[in-house]
Amino acid sequence: MKILIVGGGGIGERHLRCFLDTGQVQVSLCEAEEERVKALKEKYQLEETYTDFTTVPLAQYQGVVIATPAHLHIPMAMECAKSGVPFLLEKPLSVNLEGVDELLELIQRQGVTCGVGYMRRSLPSFKKLKELVESGMAGKIKMGRFNSSQDYRKYRPDYQQTYYAKAAEGGGCILDAASHTLNLAQWYFGEVQDVMAMSDRLVFEGVEAEDSAIILIRFADGSLVEVFCNQFQKPNTTEIELIGTKGNLKYIAEGQEHKIFFCKDDSNLWQELANYRVGRDTYYLAQAQDFLAAIRGEREFPTSLLEGKRTLMIALLAKKRGNNCEQ
């Protein structure tokens, strides 16, 4: 199977590496910066390289992964859909809703396999948490707390020179890290009824958007959820607590160990239910396998474009209602 990666930045390179690691594909690259293309050709086995997306013979590929800044996602996805080529869009779906419905109509008309890259839905650990929710062991889940926070500057020291620094290209923690968490919350809780938020640029310099946000969501069934995110704190935190009528489920990432616990009474004794080892590439490798399986028609991709649109709508509403950044 021939796969094209569009965008050779940090995330694009990870997609490139992980698709190659599946051992199932030949990988080509489209990247505008020639020096980056040269560096990646020396590092990986690439079949073809392009520096201009408009020159790519899309019909030659069985799948395209679009890992460019989010403001370019919809136009590139439209070209893939017109060519009938399956595609995977990095999150978020876009930076606004312009062209989204037209893309949804086109993929339905063309019958194109596609999805949005919320890779946590591909991980066995997050799927296990969903299974536990649906099992009813915690009763009816009525509240949730999600915390996804880290020092983004450590992992992307060049953040001031990337899309992150520019609001028009999808910068800021809400469309970046918090978008993943919003998507998970939707997966566990369902349809959203209302959103409230506070956000600000508390620490970062040289960027146009927020580095911190607290988002409150009421879901259609009345459940209440808090999504907490900052991108300057020193600990790398991933924590989820789902609060039910029969007990609480808790998901905690401790380095590469991801654990799920359950507590059913006021003894405050937490029973460990599951333990997974998760590396930085584990997410992307699992997602690559899901995309290849979707192309082969074996199963649907975990996050559809319609679900990606719903996540984007929540994120945009949170940005609108919570923004306290200087313009």
Q: Averaging pLDDT over every residue, what do you get?
A: 96
Uncertain stretches? none
The rounded distance between the terminal residues' Cα atoms is 46 Å
- CATH homologous superfamily placement of the largest domain: Dihydrodipicolinate Reductase, domain 2
* Global geometry: globular
Helix content: 25-40%
| SS strand fraction | 25-35%
Taking the sheet with the most strands, its summary is: 8 strands, mixed
Strand segment tally: 14
Q: Can you write the helix and strand succession as a string?
A: EHEHEEHEHEHEHHEEEEEEEHH
Q: What is the CATH C-level name of the largest domain?
A: Alpha Beta
User: What does the radius of gyration come to?
Assistant: 20 Å
Per the CATH scheme, the topology name of the largest domain is: Dihydrodipicolinate Reductase, domain 2
User: What structural category arises from helix and sheet content?
Assistant: alpha/beta
- Structural domains: how many: 2
Strand order of the largest sheet: 8-9-10-7-11-12-13-14
What is the number of helices? 9
> Do you know the CATH architecture of the largest domain?
2-Layer Sandwich
